[in-house]
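Hi there,

I know you've been waiting on this one. I reran it after we fixed the sequence typo, so this is the corrected version. Both the input and the resulting structure follow.
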Amino acid sequence: GSYFIEHQFAEKALGYFDRAALMQPNEVKWQLMAASCHRRSGNYHQALQAYKDIHNRFPENIECEYV
């Protein structure tokens, strides 16, 4: 996934981060990376919803705060 992010292909990276989040559901970084892919792809509504869902699941994690 990081390879595709580095080369500006966020849409392709999304699948990798989604799969990583399924394999490690308590590892917040995969979910944040997937939300970031939505944002980088211009899917702002979907990204905001993803960030809100992540914040609800991990309210104590400061990386999951949204404005």
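Quick highlight: The radius of gyration is 11 Å.

Best,
R. S.
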